[in-house]
Amino acid sequence: MGKPTLSPTGIRTDLVERLRGKTDADDRVFDSRRVNYETEELPAITVTTLGGTDDRWSIGTLLAKHTERLAIVGDVTGEDEAALAAALDTLEGQILDAVAGDPEWVGAFDAVEKVDSAKKLDDATGDLLGHVAVVVEVHYPVKYAPADEPGPLDSVWVDTHSAEPAGADVSNRPVLDHEEG
After folding, report:
1. 59 forms bridges with which residues in the sheet?
2. pTM of this structure
3. Burial, 60: exposed, middle or buried (Cβ in 10 Å; 0-12, 13-18, 19+)?
4. What mean pLDDT value characterizes the chain?
5. What is the DSSP string of 33-78?
6. Per-residue confidence at 88, pLDDT binned at 50, 70, 90?
7. Between the CA of residue 69 and those of 66, 91, 116, 159, 179, what are the distances in Å?
8. How far is it, in rounded angstroms, from Cα 55 to Cα 71?
9. Which of 36, 58, 113, 130 shows the greatest Cβ crowding within 10 Å of its Cβ?
10. Neighbouring residues of 45: CB distance < 8 A, sequence distance ≥ 6
11. DSSP structure string for the chain
12. Could you report how far apart the first and last alpha carbons of the chain are, in Å?
């Protein structure tokens, strides 16, 4: 499949493609979709970027280590709580296998430092729904382009005024001639 482009958008869209067809969600893997699924659409997965941070390697450098956090949220439904819990466990395992178990994807980064997951059951709508969230933290180097520099100094304009500064003592002062004696 190839390594992802190292940008938040590139990583997210690459994850969507890597997950399609490798989980029970099949091709219902979406890029940053708002989660308003109908039960007929489940199981489904949404991949979003949560944000990132940059750590400069040194003062004045344009190089930084970027940390990006991504969330992979899987939604499932079940006949009863036991079936729902099993579906959540299965989907979580499939997501982890497709992401953390892919050496090409993991190898695209300096480090895949964290892979956290959490599950939640929801019966507020009358349907038994479950959510599994897998948060992945990846690190990779970035180099920022330098700002445009103003260019070489061609000339300097100096403007002078003959007026005396306000409050300055400009009285005549005697000057000694050292040659006289």
Report:
1. none
2. 0.72
3. exposed
4. 83
5. ------GGG-SEEEEEEEEEEEEESSTT-SEEEEEEEEEEEEEEE-
6. very high
7. 10, 20, 11, 55, 81
8. 21
9. 130
10. 19, 23, 25, 28, 29, 30, 72, 73, 74, 75, 91, 95
11. --PPPSSHHHHHHHHHHHHTTSSTTTT-EEES------GGG-SEEEEEEEEEEEEESSTT-SEEEEEEEEEEEEEEE-SSHHHHHHHHHHHHHHHHHHHTT-HHHHTTSSEEEEEEEEEEEE-TTSS-EEEEEEEEEEEEEEEPPPPPP-------------SPPTT----------TT--
12. 95
Residue found under tokens 């964290």: 114
For residue 67, what pLDDT is reported?
Answer: 92
- Plot region of 95 (φ>0 → left; ψ -120 to 50 → alpha; else → beta): alpha
CB-based contacts of 177, cutoff 8 Å, min separation 6: none
Distance between CA atoms of 181 and 179, rounded to whole angstroms? 6
Q: What is the pLDDT of residues 126-166, one digit of tens each?
A: 678 888 999 999 999 888 776 666 667 777 777 776 667 67
